[in-house]
Amino acid sequence: MSQLSAELAELLAAARAVRERAYAPYSHFLVGAALRAENGQVFVGCNVENASYGATICAERSAILAMVAAGQRTISSIAVFTDADTLAMPCGLCRQVISEFQRDAQLLVANPRQQRVLGFSEIFPEPFVLDR
Description:
It contains four helices and five strands; from the N terminus they run H-E-E-H-E-H-E-E-H. It is an alpha+beta fold. Strands 2-1-3-4-5 form a five-stranded mixed β-sheet. The longest helix is centred in the first third of the chain and has 14 residues, at 6-19.
């Protein structure tokens, strides 16, 4: 694996740790996410499934909700960790929600065997934007 910056390595460790707390009795697909807000604070989240699948929340959105509840509004970097055989990119819904709170944040996706760092706009170049 390539060498990560200290900030991304910290996020990866936090995402990996919080993944262990995920609630995924249906899919058994545990996901952890950690993000750094613009002010330097780190927020974590894990996926929480529900028997009514539409009520399931992804790890990325869980971390964003914690950030917003703490009064922060801008993501500078985010890490997503799974134990999947391939890298698991954020789903479409998460991409749209992340886009609301970032200005080309760094995105790290990782599993125990590999990792990849990208600019968020590389995976979501044209988000929906509501004119206000």
